[in-house]
Amino acid sequence: MTDRTPASARPTRHHWRRDLVELAALFTAVAVADALANLVVHGPDGPVLLVASAVALLAASGFHMWWARRHSHAPPPPPTTPAAGAARAPAAGRRTPAGGTLWRMRTTVRDEPGSLAALCGALARHGVDILTLQTHPLAEGGTADEFLLRAPQELPAAELTRAVASGGGRRTWLERADAHDLVDTPTRVLGLATRTALDAAELPLALRQLLGRCTIHSIPATTLSGRPHAGADTPVEGVLEETVMRLRDPSGGAITIERPHLPFTPTEFARARALVELDARLGPRVPRSQDVLTLPEGNAITVRRADTTDLDAARAMHDRCSERTLALRYHGPVSDADRYLGHLLSPRYGRTLAAWTASGRLVALGHLLWDGDETEVALLIEDAWQRRGIGSELLRRLIEMAGEAGCDSVYAVTRAANTGMVAAMRGLGLPLDYQIEEGTLVITARLEAAPVDPDRARQEVRTERW
Which residues face 410 on adjacent strands? Predict the structure, then answer.
């Protein structure tokens, strides 16, 4: 760090040449004054010479003052460069948006020189700070510019939109942002690619985080009856239609992404297709971590992720379950229960947890299913292992997964007579909403309202013993 001495404390350099000039000027002035005095006293034109000397003296004084200001003894002032770490003073009339509101904004501008500068100028006049900027070229011409803005808290969204319009922006879209949006786009895309590479179930979540608020549907290649699905016929290169994006699912079928409030750009389509291609190259994969838990009665069970490789074990568990248990889980004909397993165990449609006994028997399944904008949880416990705390433990872990995935809420579809499922949902310690329609009970847990308390959840496992 460099110490800087203020200008007032610096020693003044002595200019000896200037002193010599001033001394010579003084002697010259005295000599001239003496000569003029003699002429005034002894000459015939004394009054005229007196007036002329006064004019000459005034002219000399004015010249001296001008020359003294131009050649001052003081050294020139140091440059006003701020020291390291010092904040720059805001321009006059500009409101500093420190601690303001974060906004994500997209607007379309003309593809002409100066268009973006005019838009930035309109934002600056309202004290809006541009944190990040991405430019998306459009197929029909022009560009869609995506901004992350920090605006003064007192600036309403309507006024911000009008400012963008005055700067030449059109088809403007605006929504609130948070601290997660401060991560630059390349870093965010690399993080999403890493999550997708580790877990095939992350692909729909990665697409949603990449594209913002949108609805994602995974369409299987065939229906439950084995017939080809009409919406699964998608070309390899995908289809982009304004607010709808269709991509071929590597596991079969198609992935449909809809965002009615904002059309997709070719750049977004290319990024989404790159994530899908990465998933296709890596093939089926599920993390194989597992936990061994001891139930209150002393039995040990192993909980791990399940996928389609566990299909035979799941069918065998179906065979050991009673018709009532299967009916409470699938809400339909018991004979169709096996048809759902391929869909439920596929990581494309969600995440599944399985509980295994020490002898290697599958006795429970817990599903976290992506349902468009919503998330469903479901449990199936083999009759002989019910009311031992397995269901509550699986449900607690599924809720934690939903929170990590950024879900705001989860819902469970059951029947009012299923007291075990109701008790397990209540044991989470989360705010619950109940909706009953024709004997079907839908319980919605709001994850953003209160965090899951693991200690309380474990206590409920021992007391409810579902």
Answer: 445
Domain of residue 375, CATH code: 3.40.630.30
Burial state string for 204-225 with b = 16 or more CB within 10 A and e = fewer than 16? bbbbbbbbbebebbbbbeeeee
Whether 190 and 222 share a structural domain: yes
Check residue 245 and give its pLDDT.
Answer: 92
- Give a yes or no: residue 226 inside a domain: yes
Under 8 Å between Cβ of 309 and 222 = no
pLDDT tens-digit series, residues 402-419: 888 888 899 999 888 888
Q: Which structure tokens are listed for 269?
A: 């389509």
Q: What is the pLDDT of residues 47-86, one digit of tens each?
A: 665 566 666 666 666 665 655 555 444 444 444 443 333 3
Judge if 318 and 417 occupy the same domain.
Answer: yes
**Residue 2 within a domain:** no
Closest residue by Cα to residue 286 from 377, 349, 337: 349
CA nearest to 429, candidates 405, 450, 400, 402: 450
User: How many structural domains are present in the chain?
Assistant: 3
Q: Which residues of 372-383 are buried (b: 16+ CB within 10 A; e: fewer)?
A: eeebbbbbbbbe
Amino acid letter at 370? W
In a domain, 446, yes or no: yes
